[in-house]
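#onboarding

Welcome to the new folks! Below is a worked example of what a typical request in this channel looks like: someone posts a single protein sequence, and someone else replies with the predicted structure as tokens. Don't worry about understanding the tokens yet, we'll cover that in week two.

Example request:
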Amino acid sequence: MTKRKLTKAQDAQLTELALWWKNWTETNNAAFQGLIFSKRRYLVLMGGGGSGKSIFAGRLILERVTTEPGHRFLVCRKVARTLRESCFNQLRGQIAQFYEDTGAKVNKSDMTIDFRNGSRIIFAGLDDVEKLKSIYNITGVWVEEASEITEDDFDQLDIRLRGESRWRHQIILTFNPISINHWIKRRFFDRTDPRARIHRSTYKDNRFLPQKDVETLEAFRETNPYYYQVYCLGQWGVTGKTVFDAQKLSERLQHIPKPDKRGYFAYDLEKDGVHIGNIRWEDDRDGPVKIYRTPEKGRPYVFGGDTAGDGSDWFVAQGLDNITGEQVCTLRHQYDEDTYARQLYCLGRYYNDALLGPESNFSTYPVKLLDLMGYKNLYVREVEDDYDGRIRHAFGFRTDRLTRPVILSELIRIMREHTGALNDEDTILEMLTFVRNPDNPNRAEAEPGAHDDCVLALAIAYYIRPQQSMRVEGEPEPAQARWTQDMWDDYNRATQEEREMLLKLWGKPER
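Example response:
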């Protein structure tokens, strides 16, 4: 096949494009390069201090307004007076360095920049209502320090990007993740918006950062580890007094593994409307089930479950290796009760008929359906009969004013030493918003607007472990040992997990 010969004009155009790309890659950080071509409505650039995200945002805006005539780009922060010394001066410097031949005219008093091709950049604070009212036909917005603005502020800016334009409408958000319970996280990170491009960066992505600044940031690793996690590495921060160790959890976030697979279980519902068959796994990048450790033959597993109710809209299950206590699987989705129960059934069967302990506070339907489906390894609790005071048994775990503080205290104690057992990001992030109630310091709960489903499901999973085997199937029973009275005293005073450790250390006692 004969190659088509380029015209001189086409050849010159390709040469010019190659020179532009060479200059662009040489003067920008590699971590951000692909974003210039993004056509998403929202570019959400989260990062630590010194990552270069704001410098890139400025370059991206200038590249667009100088090559795409007729833009009206709005650059804003929450407070107008903070703009002059930040974004306004930054863009003026970048124009002098990279865009001198664009005919840029800077109006220092009004804080506007006009270009020869008819494009304009307007600077305004979201507290400057009168100026905002006069701004119209906006084609793009850059919000610097976006964590300072409210969601209502954002919605007002979003509304202004409307109408006909030959250029794509785009909002760029740059911010440090100061609060894990921020509206930006809920809106763009906790759910998938196909119109948004999420980008994370740290100072390690900025090859232009002076060495003295790198040394300053890295010194926080020793002097203030939590500050280093949040403001240097760009991990979500905590505003409340979390009951768990925020520093350890933030460190664990950096080392959690990716799931071995993610998806859900598909199945065929049988004619009776209860039982299911032909269970099979379906991969789904946004699926509700995340598997971190696939089951090993004969190994015991346990699942705790938290059902939707009392203001929560999530169904959650947490799976543990019952020998090591490691988190092996999570299920988290906004399900109907029957779908949740069937996914839990499939997980239990997949993990060697694991012990299942779903909560039965607000509805007993999931537990009843699991029983009707014939699941044989459900957690059993003791219940005192209101009529005759006799003890009877019931399936499922009940979280109430007596059991809730017990299971949470045990989880807090376990996590004090074993944060390495956690593998799931959603779980860790939820733990970071699980705080002391300021009006009742003895009560631990989710911050307003946050969830506690993952925390409670995990607490239930750890609590019910003694009802499941602690050894691989087929291994011989440990030899019985003769305990001294001191050993019995220590055992009786110990917590559940401490008792498990003592049994492994001393052996099962003779009766």
